[in-house]
């Protein structure tokens, strides 16, 4: 029998905090994303509505221009909750496209290359893996939604003063909360679909399909069954309802007025839950023996 | 209480739904090189996945150096895993591959850099470290996988088919590395189909068939316990007929075949210890014995006797 004297010493140095390790994945994935000129170009283009909106806010408070246009009431248009909600809704379309392009490339290559086992044979959990990947989409969608939204709110606040700002603080919270919900649901949807469909282009098409075909299918159900429950299949409509409620917009005389915001909240929660379930089913640690 | 220097499986079973992975595994693995041997689907990878906590057992208890696999933060400090299949995130160089996973371990930049280079140096891949893994040969891929499994300084190294695709030189270097790690007191667990290499490098073997452990321990110890397969011993001597007539009177000797060249014989015995004692007496009584060597106490024979028949009957 071989007798071994223990002379081996493992690594005994310091470790980074446990909570921060998921950011390694985010950093590597983000670095790969920004290498693509097309994606970087598209992200820059997505700031065009922000520039236009900021310009509009400025013009609305520029005395010279207002006097030139001789506007009644001293303003070109009213900057209120609806104004900011419309801006967020424009950004929503960009967010859908970004999610469909970027989301599928996050998990499917790891599954395709059987690389999950490499993450999970380390002190790294499935939740941290999902968080690391989700953070990639979250940071991009943040750049498109609540960050420009809050900057616009800040510009408006700086031009009109404290009274307006305090009276309309709910708009800032609606921008942030609405964006966070959007980011969570879209990120989870993209990750779940990318985990189930290993082929990137198909996963991307599927994300767009779930978003837009779901809306069409929902409308068909509503038409045939004479109900509003079909909207539960339409992510854009559910977002719109949730944003309406967050921005405290009057629900009467609006389209889909019979579809309650509470149902929209439940619908989005259900989608997020279903995505988490799909991810937990698919992201398995062990090596798949082919 | 499981020993803190052993990997212990206590009555461990793993079922994938209704499919058997492994059943009632009871093994204790001491430091050194241990090989898992068995045909495809025998449960080798399942045992490795259980050891690394990637799979939870359906029944039973596992302890790796006194740590339960459901304590990943402690377990993975001690365990390094080299997977069977290529598992490389897209677009990374060899260095980035090792470095990035060290960061996932929680090593800071400078330490990760030092450890990555040390591991790459150990697998002799420094020159190719800055090249993309996609352009690596099969052997280089195996070595970079090995580097990522040893880079954080684990006490238990689990290697699924680590010699696959290596050329003879790289194979010899890798085996030497395993030996060096084992001599330092590391547990090196290897699964392999290449039986003569298993034989050459293993301190102990675990033979698996259809999800069951059919034998475990040191190769010679396992062989001695196989009474139903008499041990074969080759003797080269000057008077094989005389030796044959004297040994054949013994109850434990089953067969004696004289070689065609008349300078040796093959003996089959049920009790090797008694046989060697008797052979000493024969040698002292004037028979010139040139060499004595067991002919079937290697992994190849164990595999043939314990698993080969099962495989053949499929």
Secondary structure blueprint with pairings:
The complex is a heterodimer of chains A (290) and B (314).
Chain A lengths: L21 H13 L2 H9 L2 H13 L2 H7 L11 H22 L1 H9 L3 H5 L5 H19 L1 H15 L1 H6 L1 H28 L3 H26 L9 H12 L14 H22 L8
Helix pairs in contact in A: 1-8, 3-9, 5-8, 5-11, 5-12, 6-11, 6-12, 8-9, 8-11, 9-11, 11-12, 11-13, 11-14, 13-14
Chain B lengths: L6 E10 L2 E11 L2 E6 L6 H8 L7 E6 L7 H7 E4 L11 H12 L3 H14 L15 H13 L5 E5 L7 H16 L3 E5 L3 H7 L2 E6 L2 E6 L1 H6 L6 E7 L2 H8 L5 E6 L5 E6 L2 H13 L4 E6 L4 H15 L1
Parallel strand pairs in B: 3-7, 3-8, 5-6, 6-7
Antiparallel strand pairs in B: 1-2, 1-4, 8-9, 10-12, 10-13, 11-12
Helix pairs in contact in B: 3-4, 3-5, 4-5
Shape category of chain B: elongated
Main interface by residue count: A-B, 41 and 50 residues
How many β-strand stretches of chain A? 0
Instruction: Indicate the radius of gyration of chain B in whole angstroms.
Output: 23 Å
Instruction: Classify the secondary structure makeup of chain B into a structural class.
Output: alpha/beta
| Percent of residues in β-strands of chain B | 25-35%
Would you kindly provide a written description of the structure presented here, covering whatever features stand out?
- The complex is a heterodimer of chains A (290) and B (314).
- In chain A, helix 8 (126-144) crosses helix 11 and helix 11 crosses helix 12.
- Helices cover 71% and strands 0% of the residues of chain A.
- The mean pLDDT of chain A is 85.
- With 290 residues, chain A is mostly helical.
- Chain A contains 14 helices and no strands.
- Chain A is globular.
- Chain B is of the alpha/beta class.
- Chain B has helices spanning 44-51, 72-78, 94-105, 109-122, 138-150, 168-183, 195-201, 219-224, 240-247, 272-284, 299-313; strands at residues 7-16, 19-29, 32-37, 59-64, 79-82, 156-160, 187-191, 204-209, 212-217, 231-237, 253-258, 264-269, 289-294.
- Chain B has eleven helices and 13 strands.
- In chain B, the strands form three sheets. In chain B, strands 5-6-7-3-8-9 form a six-stranded mixed beta sheet, with helices on both faces. A four-stranded antiparallel beta sheet of chain B has the order 11-12-10-13, covered by helices on one side. In chain B, strands 2-1-4 form a three-stranded antiparallel beta sheet, with helices on one face.
- The mean pLDDT of chain B is 83.
- In chain B, strand 8 and strand 9 form a beta hairpin.
- In chain B, helix 3 packs across helix 4 (109-122) and helix 3 packs parallel to helix 5.
- The interface between A and B is large, with 41 and 50 residues.
